[in-house]
User: What shape does this take?
Amino acid sequence: MSDMPSSRSTPHRNPEWSKSLFTVVSIVVGLAAVVALFWQRQIGDAWSSAFGAHNVKTGTTYVFQYDYGFHPRHITWRVGDRVTISLHNQSPTHYHEMMIGRSFDDTPSAFGPIHTQFEQDFWDGVHVTMSHAYKVDNFVPNKAIVDYAGPKPLVTEGGNFSPTLQPGGSLDLTFTVPNKPGNWEYGCFVQQFMHYVAGMHGTITILPAKT
Ligand SMILES: [Cu+2]
Assistant: This one.
């Protein structure tokens, strides 16, 4: 019994010890918060891809190009909605384009087939208004019906509908989402598909018109 009081005889905690405990607890809580945030994002992404929790975009969708990717990586539109893609090349050094389509057109090369563009061009037959064109290297309208509001960029022939922006370039494409529901892809095929391979692509879900 004589040793009982001694085991309890710590009325004052060591202040150094509580300070370091506080630090450790803060770090653990901080890390837990970061992990939770990432986890939540993962779950969110997995949930949207598995169950199609669609955030239908109306009005303007800002699409940013960088070395090498697009932000956002997924867009959902609805047939019949009036929408604008506001495309911005954020790269300080590289040209980037944006094609929208399905499956690939292949060109043979010494290293095997190279995907040069999409086999099916989303923009075929679509009425598009291009505006605010700035630092556009060239633009291929392909089979889209294009109106130019403001400066008209250098228009070239051949291949999918695709604006190619210089570093810092931008433009707006306004159109009514055509009756082409389903899944589409967008990508940058610059430098023999290498931008695409490096991550420059995303997906578009087009929902049927509201009935
Ligand atoms: Cu690119």
In short: The pocket of copper (II) ion is lined by residues 96, 188, 190, 195, 200 (CB under 6 Å). Residues 60 and 84 are 5 Å apart (CA to CA). The chain has two domains: 14-53, 59-207.
